[in-house]
Amino acid sequence: MTLIRVALIVAAVAFAAMIVSAALRADIFESFAAVSADPWGAVSLVDLYIGFLAFGVIVWFVEPDMRARLGVIIALPFLGNLVALPWLAWRLPMFARALRRR
Predict the structure, then answer these.
(1) Which residues constitute the domain of residue 93?
(2) CA triplet 94, 69, 2: central angle to 5 degrees?
(3) Chain centroid to CA 7: how far?
(4) What is the DSSP letter of 101?
(5) How many CB atoms lie under 10 A from the CB of residue 90?
(6) Integer Cα distance of 26 and 9 in angstroms
(7) How many domains does the chain have?
(8) CB 5 within 8 A of CB 92
(9) Please, what is the angle between helix 39-62 and helix 66-79, to 10°?
(10) pLDDT, tens digit only, all 102 positions of the chain
């Protein structure tokens, strides 16, 4: 399980590096306008935000700390998987224990 947790954190760090790289090379609003203008780009964005909503529902029901719960759910639409990956790495032992009991 430690390897999976490390992989999730590495993925989050790599993703953060990609965000910084993209921010230095392109305007975010122009890029989103181009993506959302394409029908498949719009579908991809809707898919992305439905995924954030679904992940938020999971966080709501399994996160015991209300402050962490609200923080993750509020941050998800803005930071997306940059929030989801570390949260999942943090809570993976809890998921593993719950699944072993089944």
Answers:
(1) 2-100
(2) 30
(3) 14
(4) T
(5) 15
(6) 26
(7) 1
(8) yes
(9) 170
(10) 899 999 999 999 999 999 999 999 999 999 989 999 999 999 999 999 999 999 999 999 999 999 999 999 999 999 999 999 999 999 999 989 888 887
